[in-house]
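User: Structure tokens for this complex, please. No commentary.
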Amino acid sequence: MGGLPTSRTVNGFAVNPEKSRVMYATMRDGLFQSTDAGESWKPVGKGLKNLAAVAVNPRQSTEVYAVSMDGRVYRTADGGKTWEPQR
Amino acid sequence: MGHFIGRWAALFGVFAAGIVGVPRAAIAAEPSKAAPQRRFEHVHGLAIAADGQALWLGAHTGLYRSQDRGKTWTGVALPATHGHVDVMAIASDPRDAKVLYVATHEAGIFRTRDGDLTWTVVNGGLKGLDVHGVAVDPRDSKKVHAAVRGEGEGVYRTTDGGEKWVRVDDGPAGEVKILASVNIPTGMGGIFLYGGTAEGLLRSPECF
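Assistant:
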């Protein structure tokens, strides 16, 4: 693996429907966003962890949902800057 | 881009930028105020209908739907021949809010075309029923890819909305967790298929 950290599971993935190069990946370590089709990534959603899946609203691409493995649902309405637990 | 495993290229950026060099504080855990939904046991997938209204959640205990932004969830009964359906992945049609594909661990793929009123098993051509990923082509909703594990392992394609599947590729190395068609031109007339796996994120031109 080129000397990079090995074998991290990506268990969720979603793409901005308006800008296909903007994408999200979920891992046990949290939520990550790429704006270059996956070449580089940055963590978003401070405090989110053990994530299982992510989805972008097809009608409103700044609205993104992430859900943890145990079913905690989080929503952002500003493209990932701020997140609120849904309950 | 990265390391090639067959046609599937690993996107290492997620490791390099996401894990290495990220201050721990940036991904530090904070106590969550959201109550876990214990009945899910283990969540596998999430999708939003094309109209942005319904949220769909796939879990070890089945399929669930929310109409209030994920605050409350209602179980959805799938016509499985045995009781327990472990939902591994969900894909919504980006053009039609009533169309949804649901991939399961033991019963193949279910499809609704009427927004959950009726469900159809669409396994024709699949050589295995442990389906770990399903992806609707953003340019052509009838074109769908699915990732099968174990028996009949590989990536399958349908061009008629699930009526008939054909195995088209071995698929990415490692256990597939999610599959997605991404509308980024490959330069060869097609687009890319992305796969989240136990070994990271990979992608391949879908012109198998």
